[in-house]
Amino acid sequence: MYLDLSKYTKKTTRLPEISYNAAFFFPADEPYVSDSSFAKLALPKSVLSNLDQLGYKEMTAIQQQALPEVLAEKDLIAKAKTGSGKTAAFGIGLLLKLRPRNFATQALVLCPTRELATHVANELRKLARFTENLKILTLCGGQPIGPQIGSLEHGAHVVVRTPGRIKDHLRKGTLSLGSAKTVCWMKRTVC
């Protein structure tokens, strides 16, 4: 499957082919009975230290099942209840893949509501404390688009947004996805 986002990028560079090398569905309601320490994962010490400071002592079920797959750069489909740690499950791997010196949008997180987008962006900012100069930008409808365009002009590593606002920025040509390597769709669930 090929995802051609070139018509939405300022440059006409094409994104590489997206291959689905794995797809997983994790119910995550059942406890996962393995070593639940973040230290068992091949994470940098700065990440482990930050997780410890944030109070992340042990992985939740969704994190135990999803993080090894995310760190192996496999495609993932996961489902878990609100508050189960889904943002950390995808966010840690997403943040580790970023190149901080490249101030281009490298990851896009789509959320169905402004409230969820704000929550996800705030959690990603906390998880990103292990490295300096990572910019995570929230772009949602119901807010003036002008300041958002200004923020995009200065570059953002991760853009968290709602679908309506992404359409606005793509239509205006204010968002370049030429450097995007990761896309995450957050779906609101009723739990």
Annotated CATH homologous superfamily: P-loop containing nucleotide triphosphate hydrolases
Give the CA-CA distance, first to last residue. Answer: 32 Å
Q: Low-confidence spans: pLDDT under 50, at least 5 residues?
A: 1-28
Instruction: Calculate Rg over CA atoms.
Output: 17 Å
Could you say what the CATH topology is called? Rossmann fold
- Give the helix proportion (percent range): 25-40%
Number of contiguous helices: 6
Number of strands: 4
CATH class: Alpha Beta
H-E order: HHHEHEHEHE
Average pLDDT over all residues: 82
Instruction: Work out the count of structural domains.
Output: 1
Shape: globular
Please tell me the CATH architecture by its name. Answer: 3-Layer(aba) Sandwich
Q: How are strands sequenced across the largest beta sheet?
A: 2-3-1-4
Keywords: ATP-binding, Helicase, Hydrolase, Nucleotide-binding
GO molecular function, one term: RNA helicase activity
Motif (Q motif): 36-64
Domain Helicase ATP-binding: 67-191
